[in-house]
Amino acid sequence: ELEVNDSIISGSFDDQFGMGLVGTADGTIWYICWSPDRSKTALITSHRDCITDLICIDDMHIATSSSDGTIRIFRLEDRSELLRIHAE
Question: Which residues lie across from 80 on neighbouring strands?
Answer without folding.
Answer: 75
